[in-house]
Each structure stands twice: as structure tokens, then as C-alpha cells.
Automatic annotation (TrEMBL):
Keywords: Coiled coil
Keyword field contains Phosphoprotein: no
One GO term describing the cellular component: midbody
Keyword Coiled coil assigned: yes
Coiled-coil regions listed: 21-55
GO biological process, one term: mitotic spindle midzone assembly
A GO molecular function held by the record: GTPase activator activity
Name this polypeptide is given: RGAP1 protein
Length: 140
């Protein structure tokens, strides 16, 4: 009778352990599905950031071109002897301010590109990677 009771107790523990194992497998599959979904979202977000960065660089390049055109017009008007007679003092002042802004924007763009590089390194694909070695250590 004692042996049969021990076998029954062992059988119950086995059943509980099997149920626990089944719950753990179900939880693992849910977590793996969630991880896959999050990886997809991360990939999408990285692509969006890349697209937006390209748009920003194109817009900044266009801005630099436009500023250079303004600078050339300003220089051309100021070098012409008739330029100061045709333009009022206020117009000359505005053009002079625009030329000064060009220098400030150029300096600010230099700072922005350094900031962009630091952001780029934070967002780079190689920096955010999943390391499977930790999983191997946990399993052993």
C-alpha cells in the first residue's frame, strides 16, 4: 500500500510538472510572438528614421543652395557701382542681414551635422542587436 501511495504521489507531481511545462511553453510562444512583432516594429521605425534623415539632408542641401544663391545676389548687388544707388539703405541692410544669417546658418549646420552623427550612432542597426549568447547561458 505504501509503494502504491508513493507511486500515486509521484504521478500527481508528474502531472503538475507537465501542466507547468505546458504553461511555460505557451508563455514562451506568446513571448516569442511578441518579440517578433516588436522586432518588426523596430525595423519599421529604423526605416522611417532613415527615410526622414534622407529627407532632412535633402532639405538642408536645398537650403544651402538657396542661401548660396542669396549670397551671390547680395555680393553681385554690392559689387556693382549702381547697386547702392538702386537699393535703398533699408534694402541694403536687409541684404546685409541675410548675408550675416548665411554665416550663422552655415555654422549651425556644422553643429547639426556633428549632432546628427551622434544620433546616427545611437540609432545604427549594429548598436541595437539581439545577443543570443545570454540565452545560451540561461539554458545551461
Amino acid at each position: 500500500i505504501q509503494v502504491v501511495q508513493n507511486f500515486e504521489a509521484t504521478r500527481r507531481r508528474c502531472c503538475l510538472l507537465q501542466q507547468d511545462a505546458q504553461r511555460a511553453r505557451e508563455q514562451l510562444s506568446r513571448v516569442e510572438a511578441e518579440r517578433a512583432e516588436l522586432e518588426g516594429k523596430l525595423k519599421h521605425a529604423r526605416n522611417q528614421v532613415e527615410v526622414e534623415m534622407k529627407k532632412r539632408y535633402r532639405a538642408e542641401a536645398q537650403l544651402v543652395k538657396q542661401e548660396r544663391k542669396i549670397q551671390l545676389v547680395f555680393e553681385s548687388l554690392m559689387q556693382e557701382p549702381w547697386g547702392s544707388r538702386v537699393l535703398s539703405r533699408e534694402q541694403c541692410s536687409v541684404l546685409s542681414d541675410l548675408a550675416g544669417q548665411h554665416l550663422r546658418v552655415t555654422l549651425a549646420a556644422g553643429r547639426r551635422s556633428a549632432e546628427d552623427e551622434s544620433y546616427q550612432s545611437l540609432l545604427s542597426h549594429s548598436d541595437i542587436s539581439y545577443d543570443h549568447t545570454e540565452d545560451d547561458m540561461v539554458r545551461n
